[in-house]
Here is the input.
Amino acid sequence: MASSWMQWLTNPRRNWFAAQHYKALSNRLKKYGLRYDDLYDPMYDLDIKEALARLPREVVDARNQRLKRAIDLSMKHEYLPEDLQVKKENAEREALGALPVYQRTIP
Here is the structure.
């Protein structure tokens, strides 16, 4: 009972408050050039460590580079420039095969 309630509480697809928290956190992470998934610590959870070991090397290297850049920006009390945030997001969309935001059509 408690575990199903906790899953509902933390699932952004089911709970409006969780969705708002996810959105706010994602916006803060974007200022540093991070993704939400970059917050998972492989030293804390062995499943995360195994998942990272199964990923292609270039994906893990990109994740490590994002983390290093975020630490550097945080130490300097700076944010990633706005134009780089947009360029990185568009490059990610293109790499995943998704259309850019301005080319999407709603059926």
